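User: Replication factor A C-terminal domain-containing protein. Structure?
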Amino acid sequence: MPLARALQWENDMEFHDVYPLFSQKAAQVSTIKWLTRMMNEDDQKYWIYGTVVGVETTKPFWYLACFVCGKGVEVVDGRRICGHCGLETNSDIYKYDLDVVVADGTGVINLTLSDGASTRLIGEDTDHVIAYQGSRVKTLPPFIEDEILGKRALFEVVFRSEATAVRRFNVSRLSEDEEVLEQYELKYLPKEKGEVEAGGLKRRIVCCTCLRSWCLYGFLC
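Assistant: Predicted structure:
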């Protein structure tokens, strides 16, 4: 699985303030390094900035949802039973269950995206994708993987710990607003090592694969 090459941050700040498109208030953005090391109570929310560097393609990327509560439906003896509210349903509502790997230069993190966050990142809802390949095919189509790899966004992460002490990070929503991302990058991200001054003009030496000064995939051209 491709991992982003680590960047050296110019300062040791754990939080930065940014204004997501859908929020009137400044949100604190933490680094992945800090988030993965901290221990906290359940249902705490944090924002992280990062790039999608990996996608889980071996597990089903969608689930059948209850029309009442939206939770997953299980098929028991040919009957569709909601595992949350216990109702029998004939629901044909499909929702995303997408796992991605995100990097920010300080570390990497495994995230499970909500249906809404997945739809925003992919740009297509589950109905369109299932209509394309059929409901019997549950593995992620290659075109979706190609679409989201390399995308950068602000992710709102919900921290939850299970009884087994397995740590889970779920994403309830995200922002891909270019203006917000560019402001954050200019203010807080370090200058790229490949950026040099040449005759008063800034020139960047970029990777031939990902066109970045620091290679997204760790390649050396």
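The mean pLDDT is 71. The chain has two domains: 15-61+97-190, 192-221.
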